[in-house]
Amino acid sequence: MRIIAVDVAKVVAGASVQVRVGSGKYYGLSLQPDGTNAVDAIVYDNATTESGDIDAARALAVVSENYQFAHPIPFTNGLRVNVTGTGGVAYVYWTRTGKVE
Fold first, then answer.
1. Pair 29, 91: CB distance under 8 Å
2. How far is it, in rounded angstroms, from Cα 65 to Cα 36?
3. If we measure between CA atoms, which residue out of 29, 44, 31, 46 comes closest to residue 92?
4. 3-state class (DSSP) for residue 89
5. CA gap 56, 65 in Å, rounded
6. What is the separation, in whole angstroms, between the first and last Cα of the chain?
7. CA distance 20 to 39
8. Which of 41, 58, 84, 99 is the most exposed place for a label (fewest CB within 10 A)?
9. Contacts of 84 (CB under 8 A, 6+ apart)
10. pLDDT value for 91
11. CB atoms within 10 A of CB 26
């Protein structure tokens, strides 16, 4: 079994955050709503603007959801995450290119 050490970024609902500038691999995300309000997330291959999406909107009602890929999705320009909703968070799993796995 191969174990991969990934970086984790926490993005609160209502924020659009630049997680990484430059290339890397996107492994997935975990959506954690507050128990009342829904949380949506879109992940972009872009460091500064919300364009070039690599993961479509993930929506849920009031339960936690995890989205992880068997094969990570590469990104080249950067990693930006937009989380909409109220009171929840998204945890984004990624590595930078060249990181030893």
1. yes
2. 14
3. 29
4. strand
5. 15
6. 12
7. 22
8. 99
9. 13, 14, 39, 40, 41
10. 93
11. 24
7-96, what's its fold?
Jelly Rolls (2.60.120)
pLDDT of residue 96: 87
Looking at residue 1, what is its pLDDT?
Answer: 55
- pLDDT, position 50: 77
Which tens digits make up the pLDDT trace of 26-66?
999 999 988 888 888 889 999 877 777 787 666 665 678 88
What is the pTM (predicted TM-score) of this model? 0.84
- The residue ranges of every structural domain in the chain are 7-96
Q: Distance between CA atoms of 29 and 92, rounded to whole angstroms?
A: 4
Round to whole Å and give the CA distance between 95 and 39.
Answer: 24
Q: What confidence tens digit (pLDDT) does each residue in 66-91 have?
A: 888 888 999 999 999 999 888 899 99
Q: Report CA 93 to chain centroid distance, whole Å.
A: 6
Residue 98 DSSP symbol: T
